[in-house]
Design goal:
It is built from 2 helices and 8 strands. Helix content is about 20%, strand content about 40%.
Length: about 120
């Protein structure tokens, strides 16, 4: 079971604007600022996600093969949140739709945030 996910950023103020608009659509709100200048987000008082400056003080680089996935409440929410992320400056990595064939229970979309971190917004079932 996942505890929480963190992505890095080289532009924390812009990242906080991006995630501050996107994450409430997924039920996550700011919990507290991180000492790096980033922000920690959660739900029901529990830590779920963070956008931070790298601990070692070096520039953030995108991890090859890494992705953070957020489950949406419905397929319509996947579509809406994908469009919102694009309007906030995200790059499209895959339009919303079923994966694995039309009968697949997995419906997802793929994005890159402002720092190039790969994100998925999905609905299972």
């Amino acid at each position: 079971m996942r505890g929480y996910s963190v992505v890095g950023s080289n532009a924390l103020e812009a990242a906080k604007v991006f995630y501050g608009a996107l994450l409430p659509e997924l039920g996550l709100t700011p919990l507290f600022p991180h000492p790096s200048g980033g922000m920690i987000y959660g739900a029901e008082g529990k830590l779920k996600f963070g956008v931070l400056g790298p601990y070692d003080g070096q520039p953030h680089v995108v991890g090859n093969g890494q992705m953070t996935a957020f489950e949406a409440a419905s397929r319509a929410d996947v579509d809406r949140i994908h469009a919102l992320a694009l309007s906030l400056g995200a790059a499209n990595e895959g339009d919303p739709g079923p994966r694995g064939g039309d009968a697949s229970p997995f419906y997802g979309s793929y994005l890159r945030d402002l720092d190039g971190n790969k994100l998925c917004v999905f609905k299972w079932g």
